[in-house]
Structures are given as C-alpha cells and as structure tokens.
Amino acid sequence: xxxxxxxxxxxxxxxxxxxxxxxxxxxxxxxxxxxxxxxxxxxxxxxxxxxxxxxxxxxxxxxxxxxxxxxxxxxxxxxxxxxxxxxxxxxxxxxxxxxxxxxxxxxxxxxxxxxxxxxxxxxxxxxxxxxxxxxxxxxxxxxxxxxxxxx
Length: 151
What we know:
single chain
C-alpha cells in the first residue's frame, strides 16, 4: 500500500477528506470545493469547467493518480471528465482540479461538496527511450484502427 498525503487549502474548509466508499473500491471520490454561494454551471451540450477540490497532495515516487468520471454523473446527466483519465504526476503539488464537460441535454449545476470525479492511484513505470533504425516485425504490423476486429 502507498501513502496518499493531502494538504487542505483554505477553500476546502468544512469538507471531508476523500475516502474509499467501500472496502474494495478502486477509487476515492473527489468533491467540488467551489464557494457555497457560487455553484458551477455546466451548460448543456458542451459546457465545461475546471472545478476546484481544495486539495493538494503528494504521491510516492512510482505512482500516479488518475482522475476518472463518476459513472452515475455520466449515465444520469452526461457529465464526464473531459481529459479522462487525467493524470496527476507524483511531483505535482498544486491544487487538484477536475476538468468536467456536460454532454447532456440540460444544464448541470455543481454545488459545493458534490462528488464530481473519482481518483485511482496506480503504479507507473518509466520507459528507457531509445532511437532505433528499424522495429521488430509483428503479426499485426502497421495495422491500425479496427485492424484486429472481425469483419
């Protein structure tokens, strides 16, 4: 198990730290930390906003945090994380913000404390990048989009 250290920012006041909602949950929910009297409005059919969480964090080296959509928001309202999954590197120390987009037919209002995304902590490997003159052959070769599907 890895450590996930959070620092709360002044506008986090009154919210609870993220936690796993069940014993086997893969992600922890992130909450909106916008001002209580200033809800965030996502306009229908493409409105987007960068929503603050009021949290900064430190991950151990060799891990990343992936910001992913909450399935209920996506299914019920068409609201999702625009750059899903967003990646937070272990050396980032700024505020966690979530880029949301509304693909739904109606405007969507984000109230303070609303669960807006989930965060999954995952191990990462860094590759040794090398320049080569040729790549080894493979069965697939240069076949791209849809090339391995059945017709």
